[in-house]
Design a protein that fits this description.
single chain, Immunoglobulin-like, 2 domains, six-stranded mixed sheet
Length: 314
């Protein structure tokens, strides 16, 4: 009878097991990409913003819900609809033709009735809808930024809305509330940022998260991990958010006293975004209901200030 020595078989098996990873590393056993697969194996998370163009703290927006969908991608990838009030969307890096569409908006559970709709959902496209008793409030929504074609990692999708009363006036009571104010020391200039939009989301345990979108007045630049606007370092800015009484004059002395006790580092509470940063702040809902105005102020290392008055609209 023929006898088989099992030892060489076992040794050969162990040898193959040890060699296969090496062969894979050298390029053997590569998988072939199937036709119609996504353009890139890596997915990226793109921020989604639905923000208020009016520079105010709009409590009615806390009852606002919006729905979106992702369509048109060359890869065939889609999301319809995306999670309610989404703050980001996952897409394939390098995918083409993708569009994030705003489907509808509800305020307090009532749908904002569309008067005129979007056409192509590209930058500048506009939608108008109405809500409230006798449709007295008109909401206009504009596509401020959309997914690039092809998609790049630093894309941001932003829809900007603002409300108009039946008499045609905006919800901002005076133009001054939209203006950037400055208190400047001699030989210095105030933090060179403008407040472009405000976003407030639904309260959680009586806390209202808000985001302030600040844009450099010029084209900023990055050095290392820091951002500079007119050579002022983002990492050196401090800020204060505080209730404000209209009877109090906002002077250098007032701001110095306020910042001495309440200032925070901008870098610790914000993230860089485009040509500026988005600052996160948590309000107490009870306090928002109590006060009429808030002060948002920024200070640089030279001791100069930029500030905004934020009207609380109930």
């Amino acid at each position: 009878m023929l006898k088989i020595n099992k030892f060489p078989v076992v040794a050969m098996t162990l040898l193959l097991i040890s060699i296969v990873p090496v062969l894979q590393h050298c390029g053997f056993f590569k998988k072939t990409k199937a036709t119609g697969d996504e353009p890139s194996s890596s997915m990226v998370e793109i921020p989604v913003q639905f923000v208020n163009k009016n520079i105010e703290l709009n409590l009615s927006s806390l009852s606002l819900d919006y729905r979106m969908r992702l369509v048109g991608c060359k890869s065939g990838y889609t999301a319809d609809p995306i999670a309610l009030n989404t703050s980001s969307v996952s897409v394939y890096h390098g995918d083409e033709g993708c569009v994030l569409e705003l489907l509808d908006v509800e305020i307090g559970g009532a749908r904002c009735r569309e008067v005129s709709g979007f056409t192509d959902f590209q930058v500048g496209d506009l939608r108008t809808c109405v809500y409230g008793d006798d449709d007295e409030v008109e909401m206009r929504t504009e596509v401020s930024s959309q997914l690039s074609n092809p998609i790049v990692a630093d894309d941001v999708v932003r829809y900007t809305f603002w409300e108009v009363r039946s008499d045609g006036s905006t919800e901002i009571s005076t133009e001054d509330l939209k203006n950037r104010n400055a208190v400047t020391l001699e030989g210095d200039f105030a933090p060179p940022y403008k407040l472009s939009a405000v976003q407030m989301v639904k309260a959680t345990r009586s806390i209202v998260p808000a985001t302030f979108y600040m844009e450099c007045l010029d084209q900023g630049y990055t050095e290392g991990s820091d951002f500079f606007c007119y050579d002022q370092a983002y990492s050196e800015l401090t800020y204060v958010v505080s209730e404000w009484d209209e009877s109090v004059d906002i002077t250098l002395e007032f701001l110095n006293t306020l910042f001495a006790s309440a200032q925070k580092s901008v870098k610790d509470y914000s993230v860089l975004s485009g040509n500026g940063f988005s600052l996160r702040h948590e309000f107490q809902l009870q306090e928002l209901n109590k006060h009429m105005n808030y002060l948002l102020a920024f200070k640089n290392t030279g001791g100069s200030y930029t500030y905004y008055i934020l009207k609380v609209r109930k």
